[in-house]
Amino acid sequence: MKSQIKTLARIIFTLLASPLWLVYRGFSIIGNQDSVFQSVSQLLSLVPGKPGIYLRASFYSLACPNTSSEISIGFLTVLSHWDTTIERGVYVGPQCNIGKCFIGENTLLGSGVHVLSGSKQHEFNDPQRPIQEQGGTFTKIRIGRDCWLGNTSVVMSDIGDHSIVAAGAIVTRATPPGCIVAGNPAKKVRSRFSEQPSGSQGENEN
Predict the structure, then answer these.
(1) Which 3 state secondary structure label does DSSP give 120?
(2) InterPro entries attached here (predicted)?
(3) How far apart (Å, rounded) are the C-alpha atoms in residues 204 and 198?
(4) Are the C-beta atoms of 86 and 68 separated by less than 8 Å?
(5) DSSP states of 20-33 as a string?
């Protein structure tokens, strides 16, 4: 019965989100698509409670490639790029900022997590020019399946399946599957599939 109610809610909120999606598509034709997408995302982030969760999931499943409607996106969380994929069962907590990325199924993001579109969004090689005029490169970050990213962590590089990022950690380089990382910059603490801590005898990874 509960699953049937959820299915019905998704259908209803998809119908409610459809006009907003049509407006978004229309403005994307005459304007910058990411800018229009950000505006809609900011608006949707303000809707509280369960209605907000269902409305955001419905809109993102329409607007973002291969994104499931069976996701939970928290209050005040903003997505900044339309080219983002969020798979089934993903939970994103409140007050997160999500850049261009892929998030695998059943992954959890705590409150205040920031996923950047790579680590080179701003170039600063020329000290004679303002940083904002030097451009940058936006990369699609991949966060694997069944991961857990702790509160206020910052992600600038890929994270492998089944990995855990400690609260407040800053991920600046790719994390292999099944690892627990912590710190600034984030370093491997241990593997989820081994009780042996990183750095002890016999540990050769990383």
Answers:
(1) coil
(2) Hexapep, Hexapeptide_acetyltransf, Trimer_LpxA-like_sf
(3) 8
(4) yes
(5) HHHHHHHHHHHS-H
